[in-house]
Structures
1.
Amino acid sequence: MKQKKRIKGGVKTPHYKNTAKFETRVMPVPEKVEIPMLHHIGAPCMPTVKKGDEVMLGTIIGDSDKFVSAPIHSSVSGTVSEIKKRMFPNGAAIDSIVIKSDGKLTIDPSVKPPIVNTKEEFLKAVRNSGLVGLGGAGFPAHVKLNPPKDKKIEYLLINAAECEPYITADYRETIENSWNVISGINVVMEFLEIENVIIGIEDNKPTSIKILNDIADSDKKITAVSLKSIYPQGAEKMLIYALTGRVVPAGGLPMDVGVIVMNVTSVSFIAKYLKTGMPLVRKRLTVDGAVIKEPSNVDICIGTYIKDLIDFCGGFTEEPYKILMGGPMMGLAQYTTDMPILKQNNAILAFNKKQSMVPEQTACIRCGNCVRACPMALMPQQLDIFSESQDVEQLKKYNVESCIECGACSYVCPAKRHLVQAIKKGKILVKTKGQK
Ligand code: SF4
Ligand code: SF4
């Protein structure tokens, strides 16, 4: 089955799925991990341990009483050696727990498969698992799976598009853990009473589409659908449009159009958690880019430092000029490899100087490429101008807050305008000055 609607806008990017064929490698336990108290959208957790405490694999080390949050667990067994402040990209200083590993991965006795017979027990189990959206957004899963009663959910959409170049972590999940993917979907369908499930996969991953369709075959309510490989096909609103033809209104949420979207690795994790009770303490990342010696998909303990992960992948072939956490379109540049990997991170990419040069921007030539590329039907060139002139009213009028920061506009701009950066500044202006 093909997608229903072609998304508006979008760009064709090279795929560079270099690691797609490589089986996931499991990285040995590092000497220490660092686990910040924020891996998700929402309230940070408070540490529930202190320096000197012994912890085990799966021990809760941070939690919050706020609804939009998720507990955080130790990914190793060992000793809390330090609780320090870790600076996040948004400028916030977050408590961060450093754990010296004893190398044994002794499992906490509290780790047991949960007893789940009702929707309430299911949602509680999802919260206790620490699951947040593993596609990059990091939204607490128990919140997403608990929409208000007046929102009737008709579709569960599984996002396996993985449209960013280089990243193949979700692809490997569909190949290596396909039964867990289907089993996790069935559980969500059952407890949320959702009848229709569509798995969206870009057409550059035919093996995933075949495997998932084959094993879901006995139940036609689950279908894996081939999506055109157009970036940002995997963006939530784009995926909903492509698979159902429904349009999420500006400022609205998927549940407003009867849809829940889950990342494919997230849903697979739910199946694993219900079987084992092991919370979210490990994850798979794609490590790639021109200066990585052995590009790989690697299964790591959450909180592993980037530098240790890169060493595991053979180190650098030459001095890196740019290191990204995430893909080349939406990833965040890192100023150091001394950064821990969080639950929602799905790639570490490292590039040489030539690949990393940010071209000088020149004057806009009014070509309209950015407008045609924008999947949110925005006018990026106008937003650029209003951001520069700090015109908050115009930024609001031109809907700057609807920008999903996908980078498609910058990608196609012949004048190399730094559109996303300008739009991000514009959003901050609206947030700080627009509410007055
Ligand atoms: S970054 Fe924003 S403005 Fe640019 S194409 Fe994406 S959604 Fe549109
Ligand atoms: S793509 Fe670049 S040059 Fe063309 S209209 Fe947009 S900002 Fe201007």
2.
Amino acid sequence: MTQAEIATPHVVQLDPDHPGFRDPAYRARRDTIARIALQHRFGDPIPDAPYTPGEQEVWRAVWEELGPKHTVFAATPVLDILDRFPLDRTTIPQLSEVNARLQDATGFSMEPVAGLIDARDFLAALGRGFFCSTQYIRHASVPLYTPEPDIVHELVGHAALLSDPVLAGLQRLMGEQVAGASPTEVQRLIRVYWYTIEFGVLWEDGVVKAYGAGLLSSFGELDQIRNGPDLRAWNLHEMAQVPYDPTQYQGTLWVAPSWERLQTDLQAWYADGGWRDRHYTNPSAEA
Ligand SMILES: [Fe+2]
């Protein structure tokens, strides 16, 4: 750490191997954008994030790569959703702009947070129609990679899924379950969210396609879904028990039989309290 960094503590802590760790201008913007989140109350007007021309260039570079990959790897219903909820591919949309459209579509709003938050808090907000979103963008030196969720992930991945009434309803349902859930139940809820909304894949005409936000926004991970991970038969009870590592490409994915089964099975699982301890033989061993 340099003397300047000791003298001026950062709001946002970055690991020494983060691409922006030694870029004072990037770190200053990360701190500025984090302060927006720290001063924000859910539901209040969201101040615009001060993106630089270089960051706008990152956004355009990401879309140039991701757009063509979506046509190959994204599930058809997701492509339809992306068509109905297009994002400006030349200028980073501000959360306030996206929210105006989301409000009309599903009532959801994306609310800025400074970084990753606790699973119970994230799900509880989801249940109230608030999606906790980062607002900063990845470092310009590696436009196709980010070690943490950024505005590319939130908008390219999550905004579209939140604009669809059925998927938005499912996500609200996922969040509503967390009230009164035990720690192991919260783990199961966030894992099913992770392996579906974040890293979900499904069968489409005998081919594995992506619908999860983490895949739709990841240039590197998207084109490996058919030959990288262990592709398992669709099983919500099983995925609810398998821990995940957000810092690595996902080693295991559960393939939904279809877009329709994805929705009906999730709704049935929640209606039945499928995440409840009573459905598991030794809940205390999972914690
Ligand atoms: Fe995400």
